[in-house]
């Protein structure tokens, strides 16, 4: 009867290359694959009942697959948390002063367009776009019909669009 150490040595010799290739396909990195393959053999060797397995190579591949999956999860988690390498050739993704001013001007323009709406249309517009209410919920709240809500929202969008276009072209404010 052969010893456990002899069986492990034969298993390593027979499957090391295939196992590394298997892990490399899953991780995309030869060095990581070599490390995880070695870790798989170490974990397999520490098993108290490893000698009684019917399919030791299959179990070894399962261990290696799980190690590769755990590695990929760690890398994925790290990438989500880490901003990555600083690239001196690309500008910061933060908005520059010009973009901040333009965004504020756009926000003010939209706010003015909404404030210029007739009161009932403005209320429905805000309920729909800010509060996230449905046509039916707005109709119940304002004691009207969903069709009326649809009309007012369509009208509000047209008036806002006209207001913004007039402001962008330097013209005077459109009449409600």
Number of strands: 0
N to C succession of SSEs? HHHHHHH
Low-confidence stretches: none
Q: Can you summarize the main beta sheet? A: none
Say what oligomer this is: single chain
By CATH, the architecture of the largest domain is named Orthogonal Bundle
Structural class: mainly alpha
Q: Looking at CATH, which topology of the largest domain would you report?
A: Rna Polymerase Sigma Factor, Chain: A
In the CATH scheme, the class of the largest domain would be Mainly Alpha
Number of helices: 7
Helix fraction bin: over 70%
Question: What is the residue-mean pLDDT, rounded to a whole number?
Answer: 83
What general form does the structure show?
Answer: elongated
Number of domains: 2
In whole angstroms, the N-to-C terminal distance is 97 Å
C-alpha Rg, in Å? 33 Å
Write the layout of secondary structure elements.
Blueprint: H1 4-27, H2 30-46, H3 56-81, H4 97-115, H5 119-129, H6 135-142, H7 146-169
Helix pairs in contact: 1-2, 1-3, 2-3, 4-7, 5-7, 6-7
Domain RNA polymerase sigma factor 70 region 4 type: 108-160
Organism: Acidisoma cellulosilyticum
GO molecular function, one term: DNA binding
What would you say this structure looks like, in words?
By secondary structure, the protein is mainly α. It has two domains: 4-81, Orthogonal Bundle (Rna Polymerase Sigma Factor, Chain: A); 97-169, Orthogonal Bundle (Arc Repressor Mutant, subunit A), CATH 1.10.10. 73% of the residues lie in helices and 0% in strands. It starts with a helix and ends in a 7-residue tail after the last helix. 14% of the residues are buried. It holds the Pfam family Sigma70_r2. Keywords: Sigma factor, Transcription, Transcription regulation. This is Sigma-70 family RNA polymerase sigma factor.
